[in-house]
UniProtKB/TrEMBL annotation:
GO terms for molecular function: adenyl-nucleotide exchange factor activity; protein homodimerization activity; protein-folding chaperone binding; unfolded protein binding. Keywords: Chaperone, Coiled coil, Stress response. Pfam families: GrpE. It comes from the Bacteria. Belongs to the GrpE family. Residues 1-18 have a biased composition (Basic and acidic residues). Residues 1-51 are annotated as: Disordered. This is Heat shock protein GrpE. Residues 60-87 form a coiled coil. GO terms for biological process: protein folding.
Length: 166
């Protein structure tokens, strides 16, 4: 969008410069036509020659002014483009940092959730060990069955608390 505006301004300024040159050339052509041939122009008085020199000098001065004006506009637009480019780079860097931060936060949330789930199942593992130890010295499998049923019930409760279904 900015390039189009800059290009349009440069085209406009170039057209104005061309118009000034055409006007100067027309004035020079009119001067030659009014004075006749080249031989007649050489025979003119010093005033006529100095007037043409002034016209050419004024045309050259206006062209030089236009060039300086265009250079200053170009410098302004270049500075403006640099500012926009710097803003773009900063915004891109900020977005990149945001993405990295979001990934780290997501990983942290996942790690916390995983540790919570594992911590929830630790009592189940402890109770399984107790049930196995209690049944090791007893030949009666009734106590083993009761212990395993308790662990199973605890396991189901944890699954429900975590909103997991079978």
């Amino acid at each position: 969008m900015m390039k189009n505006e800059i290009n349009n301004e440069i085209k406009k300024d170039n057209e104005q410069s061309k118009n000034n040159e055409v006007i100067c050339e027309d004035a020079a052509d009119n001067g030659e036509a009014a004075h006749g041939t080249i031989d007649e122009a050489a025979n003119e008085s010093k005033n006529g020659a100095s007037q043409e020199a002034c016209d050419e000098a004024s045309c050259e001065a206006s062209v030089n002014e236009e060039i300086e004006k265009l250079k200053s506009q170009l410098n302004e637009k270049t500075k403006q483009c640099e500012e926009y480019f710097n803003m773009l780079q900063r915004t891109a860097a900020e977005f990149d940092n945001y993405k990295k931060r979001a990934i780290k936060e997501k990983e942290a949330i996942y790690t916390d959730a995983l540790s919570d789930v594992v911590a929830s199942f630790l009592p189940v593992a402890d109770n399984m060990e107790r049930a196995l130890q209690a049944s090791a010295g007893d030949a009666d499998f009734k106590s083993l069955k009761e212990g395993v049923e308790l662990v199973h019930r605890q396991f189901k409760e944890i699954m429900q608390n975590l909103a997991l279904r079978r």
